[in-house]
Amino acid sequence: MLTLMLKNIPEQLHAMKESAEKNRRSLNSEILARLERGDLAAPTVDPEAHAEELKAFIARLPRVEHARISRYKPQGRASPAKHKGAHRNTVVQNWATFFGA
């Protein structure tokens, strides 16, 4: 059975909690009863309004200079060949120490 946990319930759902108390049900039972009656419907999303909200959000994001980021990426990184070799040497040293070689 699927379990659903609700946290930080928005103000609109407080009415459902009051209704559950009035009907002497738990909030979970109230939700199940409403689902069975068809009182609860899946939320509808207006794609155009959602797209506008996303565009507004993107407009608020700071601009990024990709060339500047690319310039900083290699700093502090070992090249893959050096990294693998260093790792391999460390493993060999650890095994040698462990086995007393």
Task: Characterise this structure.
The chain has 101 residues and is an all-alpha fold. It has a domain at 11-60. Helices cover 63% and strands 0% of the residues. The protein is built from five helices and no strands. Helix 1 (11-22) packs across helix 2. The model has no long low-confidence stretch (mean pLDDT 75).
β-strand percent reads: under 5%
- The level of helicity is 55-70%
What is the end-to-end distance? 57 Å
Number of strands: 0
The profile of the biggest β sheet is: none
Task: Provide a compact summary of the structure.
By secondary structure, the protein is an all-alpha fold. It has helices at about 10-20, 25-35, 45-60, 65-70, 80-100. The protein starts with 10 loop residues before the first helix and ends with a helix.
Descriptive keywords:
101 residues; mainly alpha; 5 helices
